[in-house]
Design brief:
With 188 residues, the protein is an all-alpha fold. It is built from 8 helices and no strands.
Length: 188
């Protein structure tokens, strides 16, 4: 290992490069090691790209609007089944859930489940927008028309202006009835 590199400055990539070059280190007695250093990224090996069934259930509950303490109460026995003390189990479950929700794959799963729930509610949302538009809300009417493709406010194309011009056409004169006879009709 190069002497100029301090141990605190040594990154995982640098260790991998050193081990691939065949540079040996020293053991606890200060003697030179005869084999290359092998570095294992524990974070990469302990986590897979897929969520566990418990994580999937937590993501589904979070997307449905449950809070972390509520999810911890529901899934505490599943997340930490070995902890017998219920308050401590809930505390550990909340901590675990917070740690899970910091990962990108968990946030992606929450987003996907939330999108699915929103898609399932789209008919009810459209009914609500339609009801508000019928009540006279202009913004709801505009949104409903935009969603149906009938109104596009931000397009370059503007509707064509139609002008009806009547040149030298005289206006119609009211007709006078000539002497007309009034006839009574009996309903019999």
């Amino acid at each position: 290992m190069p002497e100029a590199v301090k141990k605190s400055e040594l990154t995982l990539e640098a260790l991998r490069a050193v081990s691939q070059d065949g540079v040996v280190g020293r053991n606890h007695d200060g003697q030179r090691r005869t084999r290359p250093i092998t570095v294992v990224d524990k974070k990469a090996t302990n986590r897979t790209d897929e969520l566990t069934p418990v994580q999937e259930k937590a993501a589904r509950l979070f997307a449905a609007g449950k809070t972390i303490p509520q999810i911890a109460k529901l899934l505490g026995d599943t997340i930490h089944p070995h902890v017998a003390n219920r308050p401590y189990q809930l505390k550990k479950s909340r901590t675990t859930l917070r740690r899970w929700f910091l990962t990108n794959k968990m946030r992606d799963a929450v987003y996907e489940h939330g999108r699915i729930l929103l898609d399932l509610e789209s008919t009810a949302i459209m009914r609500g927008i339609s009801r508000k538009a019928r009540e006279g809300r202009v913004d709801a009417a505009r949104l409903a028309l935009e969603l149906n493709g009938r109104h596009a406010p931000n397009t370059e194309e503007k509707p064509a202006q139609i002008v009806l011009a009547f040149g030298n056409v005289p206006r119609p004169e009211p007709r006078q009835l000539e002497d007309a006879e009034v006839v009574d009709v009996d309903p019999d």
